[in-house]
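U., I forgot to send this yesterday:
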Amino acid sequence: MKVRSPISDKYSFFLNALLKINKKLSGDVSYHLFYDLFKIRAAQWKYKVKANREVDSALSDVFQDLIAHYFRVLLPKRFEVLCEHKKDKVQPDIIITKNGKYWAAIEVKTTIGWTRDLVKKENYRKRLRTLSQTFGISQKRAFYIFEAARNVNREFLEIFEKDKPHKLRRHIYPLFLNNAHPFNLSEIKGNDRKNYYEEFLDNEIYDLYKRNRVTRNPLQAIIRKKILD
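Result:
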């Protein structure tokens, strides 16, 4: 029996949008990513207020799919982007092949949460060595993409905020200083954010992007340095 399902229809529309690869997408593609994340979280914030939900639903898988989507937009046809591809029990977030051969392995994080030892104790090195050995790729092309630098600690943030040289910069690439999250970037503070949400104009979102991007066109810069070089 068929029923009207606007929820599943909208979700199908979202997934189909991820499948549409517009190679002619112009301008700063990293801003498109920031805008997507910001607007999705704006919708979450509005929903939280109206539905009395106190915690965001997880966005890590959406972030992974958005990164993969924009890689497909930016990379030449000889590259293929695979999500959750598994080999010998090792399953990175994203694998990139070049002419059918493994080329790059990427772990992506919106936040590292309680696993801050990933950076503090350099556990990222062990993981990247495993990816390099398992997929037979150069260690240079096994790396992390973090959504934001602020999620680790103040020292880590300052490496990117103040453009300091550091060995971490060869392995971990934050796109933004702060997450693309209106809840955190809003002028509404404290418990008021549980009862009110803020609407942002597109030009305001763009200004927030420019203030928070780690470098100009960060996603394109990563691709040039780690995949195309």
